[in-house]
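Aim 2, interim progress. The first record below pairs a target sequence with its structure tokens.
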Amino acid sequence: MSESGALVGSQGAGRRPAPLWATLVATFFGAGRLHPGPGSWASAATVVLWAAFYQVLQVPLRMPGLVALAVLVTLVGIPAATQVARASGIKDPQFVVIDEVAGQLIAFLAVPLNWKALLAGFLLFRAFDIVKPPPLRLLERLPEGTGIMLDDVGAGLYALGMMHLLLHFHLL
């Protein structure tokens, strides 16, 4: 596959295609194929989905539900991202966006949601994901799916810290 996700040759330059489950997970059910900015599309979809779940989950289930979801996305995302990256021949393909989903979820941990929190969480996570302040670049160097996922988990943690600072100063 090329970086854009199009097949190169008959089998991605001689590589076997990734299993369907891995492709669906890694691309967040196709969000990674949207342009421009597939990572931003995946983050935006995650914000919308979390806002919907937030409304239907009972208050005591919100925090543990979000933690469980972020952990599950990360743990399933690592092997999915690994298999899709291997099949594409690209270390960190742009169309693999499950890492953005995990990081975006982390940015909302213990944050009461309103439109300002949703917008701030989205913008902060995307900024940290794009800029990659230290040591996120080091995490990116970890092998395969682990590196693909953990730099965005780190960006989510940075965004989470900023979100809680904004909450502390009553700016959200």
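The second target in this work package is listed in the same format:
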Amino acid sequence: MPNIHMTKMINLVCIMFSIISYVNSENRIGLKLSFLSSTSGMTGSSKFAGAFFTALEFINNNSSILDGYRLDYLFNDTRANSLDAIKAMTSQYGNDTIGFIGPDESCQCESTVAAAWNLPMLGYVS
């Protein structure tokens, strides 16, 4: 059975590593990934949003995946409308996004815009 001093030391070491890990995560280069979704819930987009944010957290907490980088996100409600999606994409393109996830409705026009900018787009519905 460990004594009380050993337990305190283990706790202090864990706290120290947590602080170091937090500081190091702030020093990583942020890469912005755009998430295009409709909050209307017409396509079950809340499930995809949950998966998106869970994946971001997993990637950002695993330094062996993107060593020296972290994923940040940009989000806009597309309201299930292609024009709103393209407006959002244009805004996010101006904010240095590296690619798009979505939108959750049609993506024919949106994918053409992403291709014109030479940026990847991953559709999760269409």
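The two ends are 58 Å apart (CA to CA). This observation will shape the mutagenesis plan for the next reporting period.
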